[in-house]
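Table S2 (continued). Query chain:
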Amino acid sequence: MAVVTMRQLLESGVHFGHQTRRWNPKMKRFIFTERNGIYIVDLQQSLSYIDNAYDFVSQTVAHGGTILFVGTKKQAQEPVADQAARVGMPYVNQRWLGGMLTNFSTVHKRLQRLKELEQIDFDDVAGSNLTKKELLVLRREKDKLAKTLGGIRDMAKVPSAVWIVDTNKEHLAVNEARKLGIPVVAILDTNCDPDVVDYPIPGNDDAIRAVQLLTRVIADAAADGLLKRHSGRTAAAEGAPADAEPLAEWERELLAGAEADLASTAVAADATEAVAEATTEIAEETAAAEVVADPVADEVVAEALTDEVVAEAVTEDVAEVQAEAVEAEVATEAAEPAADEAAAEGDADSK
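Corresponding output:
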């Protein structure tokens, strides 16, 4: 089953590319046609590449990997943050800092600094042993770090793969990922270079709805991988110690949603099976009734035919009796004149 449908891609405007004068010739194989000076992306290929990217992300997360979501353009900032937070993955939706991957040791130190600043109560001036100005400076430092690094606050190591919206704008992230051999999953618009992407998805990287749809697909793949990872842990370590690391809240929510879906599917299957069994029983009873009814019907028909034959015979006998009575009456009427003549002759002789 496809991850998304052709209708969803069309409604989201994934098929719209850039103007024909703004294109990368390497993208020619992904272009379906040109209309009104705009290239149209071949969505049949997009569907296939979406399935490939979905499977890769799902397997990567299932084996313990993480996906870094990157999208700093205005259209991508909100979808990237929302979808990454939904599945507990790191993200960058503000400015990409140079060395965020290739110099991660330094970035990790800044993350530790951010966590230290988060422990400070900036409203408690008396208890902090700091002046208002010092607290203000520290607050500004925290806000700056939270804005640029807040999305990767809990990222302890470089990611297993990166999801990028608009490889041209995020060329620094693409270059760093390629230097470290990190697979790149990205939307490829008609002005992008497909050679720098490992798992491309041909489509529109400028429309908000297109970015939302494709980013949600990648987040769904990550969620699917997390469920597979948890299922594997459960199957492999049912006798795990009591002090094992508990699931995060978002992981519990994902697991609860999956279990609810499985339960509803099981209930629907049971209902379908019950309906099928009832239908089978009704069919069997109907067949048995037909088997019993056929001989009875034959007997009734035979009796009806017998009664009809008897009635016909009786009718014929009655007709014969009536005919004989008529003949006798006619004979009687014919004999009366002869008797009168004989009587007259007898009277004459006696005289």
